[in-house]
Design brief:
By secondary structure, this protein is of the alpha+beta class. The chain has helices spanning 9-19, 52-63, 160-164, 166-190, and strands spanning 2-3, 40-50, 73-76, 87-94, 97-110, 117-124, 130-140, 146-157. Helix content is 28%, strand content 36%.
Length: 192
C-alpha cells in the first residue's frame, strides 16, 4: 500500500488487523534458504562483535527488532514477538511517499542459549509490494568468536508500482541491508 502521507496510529492498527488473516504471497515457506527461479537472491553480512556475550546481546537485539531502527523504515508494532505466526507491518518512507507492507514471521533459527546461530525469517503477505522471504540471523564463529549478522532475502516485485520502479526498489533493498547491518552493530555498542 502506497500513501502520500504518514499513516496514523489507527491506520497502522487497521492495516495490521486486516493483515492477520492474509496468506503469504509466495510458496513454499523456506525459500530464503534456497535460490528459487524467478527470485532475486540477496545476502549481506558483517562482523558486529566478538564473544559469547556479544552473540547473546546481538540475539536479544534481533528479538527487539533493533535491526529495523533505521529512521526511514519502521516496524509496527514495536516490540512484536519473533514467534512464527506473528504479523508485522513494515512502514517505509522513500521518495516522498510511504509504503506499508505486511509480513508474517514464518520460522525461527537456532537457540540463543544453546547454539551458535539464532534468528528468524519473515515472509511477505499479499498486501506487500514485494513477494519473498527474508532471514535475519546472528552467528557465533567457534574458532574466531566473531559474531556475524547475516541477512538473506529472496524477492521479486508483486505490486504494479514495485514492478514499474524495480530499479529503484533494488536500490532501497540494498540500502536496507546496509543500514540494517549498521543498526545492529550500533545496538551492540549501546550495550557496552
Amino acid at each position: 500500500m502506497f500513501l502520500i502521507h504518514r499513516p496514523s496510529r489507527s491506520d497502522l492498527e487497521e492495516f495490521l488487523e486486516a493483515s492477520r488473516h492474509l496468506p503469504l504471497s509466495y510458496d513454499p515457506i523456506g525459500i530464503a534458504k534456497q535460490s528459487p527461479a524467478g527470485f532475486k537472491v540477496d545476502q549481506a553480512s558483517a562482523v558486529i562483535g566478538h564473544g559469547q556475550e556479544a552473540f547473546e546481546r546481538a540475539g536479544i537485539a534481533l528479538t527487539e527488532w533493533k535491526h529495523f531502527d533505521l529512521g526511514w523504515v519502521e516496524l509496527w508494532p514495536r516490540g512484536a514477538a519473533i514467534e512464527p505466526g506473528t504479523v508485522v507491518a513494515v512502514l517505509v518512507h522513500h521518495l516522498g511517499v510511504w509504503s506499508l507492507n505486511g509480513c508474517r514471521v514464518v520460522y525461527g533459527i537456532g537457540d540463543l542459549q544453546r547454539g551458535t546461530d539464532f534468528g528468524f525469517a519473515y515472509g511477505t503477505l499479499t498486501n506487500h509490494a514485494e513477494m519473498g522471504e527474508e532471514i535475519f540471523e546472528v552467528m557465533l564463529e567457534p574458532e574466531s568468536e566473531s559474531v556475524i549478522y547475516r541477512i538473506r532475502a529472496v524477492s521479486k516485485p508483486r505490486a504494479a508500482l514495485a514492478r514499474i520502479g524495480y530499479p529503484i526498489t533494488r536500490v532501497f533493498q540494498e540500502r536496507f541491508r546496509r543500514d540494517s547491518l549498521i543498526a545492529l552493530r550500533r545496538a551492540l555498542r549501546a550495550g557496552d
